[in-house]
Design the sequence.
């Protein structure tokens, strides 16, 4: 049988501490061709053993109803998850002997097994790391994984050509060193700024000293001019001249001293300016180095933030750097405490062990077996499906006229408007244009197999319960009851019993011709006299068409047979007959046979097979069906 493109995987199913059965819908050959994979509440694989922890129950007809159930010996705990996957062995154990018969069923089984194995590989492939098909393959790129090692991170090497392992401790230390380097660079930049500020202050002081020296020199020139004036005045007054000359000499000495001090101050200012220039240069170099370290640290930080977005409340349109998200980016969604990963098609998906879980993985499950919230995933046992209906609260179905929801309910002697004391009821409900429509089917727990049904009309009124009659609660009419025609019990009638009843009414016991005597009879409830009854029957028979049920015909078998009176034969084995006398052949009567009539006929005479194959007998027949 063809194998459809069905994923050889079912689930994941979420444990609730109650459910033990988990279905799968793909075809298998043996119950060993299926295994469950279980994760505990910490997302660690939980080993299970066939026979001890679970068993596999296959559907009997794997071609038309493939699949079955994985049945655990105890309920799957809450928070645990299980997926059912195919596990057909990767071998080919069928031998085709040379010159052997062509066995299509065996060849098809081998092809089915290969298809199952390919589907298993495909199911594993979708859970593996893969390079996008659009990526331009480089023959130098190796996709081989390095040997597993504890506390090792997986990543591309510096050339981007191979996957390699990074020591987790060293990676974290390097990241911390990068952060420390950025902090040190920032400190160096601050120190350089301080040195530049001090150098500027020194240069300002040197400029002030030079200004003071220039002022002292100007004062010396003024004193020398005054001295010349004093010398001229000295000619008029020797005493005054002598005094003025002494003053001038003193002034000149002061001027020379001031000029020397100015020169010293200028030299000091030049040294301070040179030192300030060197400090500024050193500060600029430190600032450049700090800026490079800070840029490198920022680049690493942005690259990290471009992949991990941190904690967010909903799926973002841009990453923290303001760029469009790329495949592999992820974040933690605080709204429902799940990790979300960016897919290659541009959508966000809830991550769960890198498995492709489909759209149902992002939906919330029911909070109870009677949770009717829209867009919730239905649990096993919800609304009575997939578990014993005894698990539903009896108070929820106190009255079958008003069940709380569509589902399966238990019926007990306390249930109102029930068709039976103990049983199960399937209730289906919907609304259309404001009008409620409901339908119920119920079955009793007794061995009678009685089925009941009822429905609600457009006004919301329940109709009466009706019993469905079938071979389980109806017995077949016996021949005696059919011929008596007095029983009022509902029975099953076959075509044979109907014919027997009619034949008895028309012909008497065992279908023998009923003799109409001269005594009065009661026919179909009407009393008639003897002659009137005979005339009535003859008149009725005269109205019959040729070949209809109840009519008589002169027929002969189409084959050489012997038939006793009362024997029956299909019309296809008979033919309308006539008798003629051949005067040229010693006046021997000859039987001519024509077309065959429809239906079944009873012989009223006697058919004798002649000694020769060409000899036939004909007689009167009654069509009985």
Sequence:
């Amino acid at each position: 049988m063809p194998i459809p493109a069905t994923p050889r995987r079912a689930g994941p199913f979420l444990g609730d501490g109650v459910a033990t059965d988990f279905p799968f819908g793909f075809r298998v050959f043996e119950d060993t061709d299926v295994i469950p994979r279980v994760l505990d509440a910490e997302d660690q694989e939980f080993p299970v053993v066939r026979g001890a922890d679970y068993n596999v129950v296959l559907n009997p007809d794997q071609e038309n109803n493939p699949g079955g159930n994985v049945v655990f010996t105890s309920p799957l705990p809450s928070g645990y998850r299980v997926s059912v996957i195919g596990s057909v062995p990767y071998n080919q154990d069928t031998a085709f002997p040379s010159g052997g018969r062509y066995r299509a069923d065996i060849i098809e089984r081998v092809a089915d097994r290969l298809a199952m194995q390919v589907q298993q590989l495909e199911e594993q492939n979708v859970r593996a790391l893969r390079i996008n098909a659009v990526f331009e393959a480089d023959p130098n790129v190796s996709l081989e994984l390095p040997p597993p090692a504890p506390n090792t991170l997986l990543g591309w090497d510096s050339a981007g050509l191979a996957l390699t392992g990074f020591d987790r401790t060293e990676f974290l230390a390097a990241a911390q060193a990068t952060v420390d380097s950025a902090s040190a660079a920032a400190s160096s930049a601050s120190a350089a700024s301080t040195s530049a500020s001090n150098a500027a202050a020194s240069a300002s002081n040197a400029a002030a000293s030079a200004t003071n020296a220039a002022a002292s020199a100007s004062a010396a020139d003024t004193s020398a001019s005054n001295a010349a004036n004093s010398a001229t005045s000295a000619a008029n007054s020797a005493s005054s001249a002598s005094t003025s000359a002494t003053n001038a000499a003193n002034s000149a000495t002061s001027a020379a001293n001031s000029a020397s001090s100015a020169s010293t101050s200028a030299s000091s200012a030049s040294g301070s300016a040179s030192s300030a220039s060197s400090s500024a240069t050193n500060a600029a170099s430190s600032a450049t180095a700090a800026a490079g370290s800070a840029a490198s640290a920022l680049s690493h930080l942005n690259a990290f933030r471009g992949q991990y977005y941190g904690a967010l409340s909903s799926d973002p349109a841009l990453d923290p750097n303001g760029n469009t998200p790329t495949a592999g980016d992820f974040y933690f969604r605080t709204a429902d405490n799940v990790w979300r990963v960016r897919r290659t098609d541009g959508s966000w998906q809830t991550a769960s062990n890198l498995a492709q879980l489909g759209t149902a993985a992002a939906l919330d499950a029911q909070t109870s077996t009677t949770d009717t919230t829209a867009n919730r995933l239905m649990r096993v046992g919800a609304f009575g499906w997939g578990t014993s209906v005894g698990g539903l609260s009896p108070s929820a179905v106190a009255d079958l006229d008003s069940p709380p929801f569509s589902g399966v309910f238990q019926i007990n002697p306390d249930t109102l408007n029930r068709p039976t004391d103990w049983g199960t009821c399937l209730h289906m409900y919907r609304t259309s244009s404001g009008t409620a429509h409901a339908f119920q089917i119920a079955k009793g727990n007794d061995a009678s197999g009685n089925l009941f049904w009822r429905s609600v009309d457009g006004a919301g009124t329940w109709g009466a319960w009706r019993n469905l009659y079938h071979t389980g609660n109806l017995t077949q009419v016996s021949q005696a009851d059919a011929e008596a025609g007095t029983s009022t019990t509902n029975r099953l009638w076959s075509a044979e019993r109907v014919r027997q009843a009619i034949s008895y009414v028309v012909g008497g016991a065992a279908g023998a011709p009923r003799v109409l005597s001269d005594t009065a009879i009661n026919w179909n409830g009407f009393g008639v006299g003897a002659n009137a009854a005979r005339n009535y029957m003859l008149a009725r028979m005269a109205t019959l068409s040729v070949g209809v049920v109840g009519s008589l015909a002169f027929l002969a078998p189409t084959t050489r047979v012997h038939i006793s009176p009362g024997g029956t034969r299909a019309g296809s084995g008979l033919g309308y007959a006539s008798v003629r006398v051949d005067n040229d052949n010693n006046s021997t009567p000859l039987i001519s046979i024509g077309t065959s009539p429809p239906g079944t006929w009873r012989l009223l005479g006697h058919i004798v097979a002649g000694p020769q194959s060409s000899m036939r007998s004909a007689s009167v027949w009654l069509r009985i069906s």
Summary: The chain has six helices and 26 strands.
